[in-house]
What we know:
Blueprint: H1 7-10, H2 16-30, E1 37-38, H3 50-63, H4 79-90, E2 101-104, H5 107-113, E3 124-128, H6 132-140, E4 147-148, E5 153-154, E6 158-161, E7 179-183, H7 195-208, E8 211-215, E9 241-246, H8 248-251, E10 259-262, H9 276-288, H10 294-304, H11 306-332, E11 337-339, E12 345-349, H12 356-367, E13 369-370, E14 372-373, E15 384-388, H13 393-406
Parallel strand pairs: 1-13, 3-6, 3-7, 7-8, 8-9
Antiparallel strand pairs: 2-10, 4-5, 9-10, 11-12, 12-15, 14-15
The chain binds D-malate.
Amino acid sequence: MATINANFNKLASGYLFPEIARRTAQWQKRNPGIPVMRLGIGNTTEPLPPAVRRAMKEKIDKLGDRTTYTGYGDEQGDTYLREAMVKYYQRWGIALEPTEFFISDGAKSDAANIQQIFGPDNIVAIQDPAYPVYVDSNVVGGRSGAYNSERGQYDGFVYLSTSEEGGFIPTPPEEKVDLIYLCNPNNPTGAVANHAQVKAFVDYAIANKAVIIYDSAYSEYITEEGFPRSIYEVEGAKRCAIEISSFSKFSGFTGVRLGWTIVPHELECEDGAAGVLNGLWNRRQCTFFNGASNVSQSGAYAALFGKGYEESRALVEYYLGNAKIIRDGLTSLGLTVYGGTNSPYIWAKTPNNMDSWAFFDLLLERCHVVVTPGGGFGPAGKHYVRFSSYGHREDVEQAMKSVKENAGI
Length: 409
Ligand code: MLT
């Protein structure tokens, strides 16, 4: 008799972004013909950089010729791309080896899958608010207790609280935990931890033989000095941290799909000496994954240097320009806002302490603008909403005009 993985029953609700899409679709059904402006999910809208497109087209032509056609590649990613990733990290003075990189179909899947190489009894620390994948994957992996609807949190997880006063940057837990999820620049708050704040976690992890899962998907949005682009800028991090990142928000690969995970050879944990975790992730990928798309890998290679890099940087600047428009617009309405400078996300406090889903409804109803309710990222977000800057400029301008004219705040 087959039974289900009952951990799925513990999940508190449907996944956040489909839920927003469902509510938006329902609203559109009730209000046919009215266009909505989407500043909800962080989904890129500008075209791929020309150099990236050229590289992908060349690869497709090679695939169309039997003398240059290739089938399965290496599960870890093609060697030329792993070597290029090594050079990309050298920009920030970080020395890594190609065998420490694992190219994948994106940061989201890696962030969800990485927990499989850790024991079910590991105590997990997650920031509140957080990107929901860290929470849900560990619930499904059996590391949580029941969902506590009063607290809006799962028993068994250690929540790293953040506050407005603390700039939404968490500090290491008082108690001993085993796995720590950090996202820097942060999704959803747009906050960026500086070198010293990240170092506090590295020191904690080394002292407690904990492992940090560091999501740096938005690192190219850091334009100011003093903030690490990678956790490996911090001394000792190779001993205690896995870094997960992506081409999605840097080169517009949300649909193309390509990301990477770094598992350093030096990384160790309680019962795994240096090298063990790298070997386990390699084993996991070889068994469950057949390598990332070869066309995507060609495009990604082109994005790392020269024209492709410049064009990708221009995309980032474009979205940061949108973020400024959103930030300035909301500020002019008297709202308190965070993020949006070294990050594509703007974290806005709801007016009059309104619940985030109620403010979501208000913005949709009155302004036809879709945002992400902060409560969907955890209870600490319930009086905030997140604005994403990943729209076309004219749509972002139109959305902010509508918020200013119609929100009634
Ligand atoms: C977000 O909106 O938080 C992200 O775009 C979702 C994702 O990257 O999976």
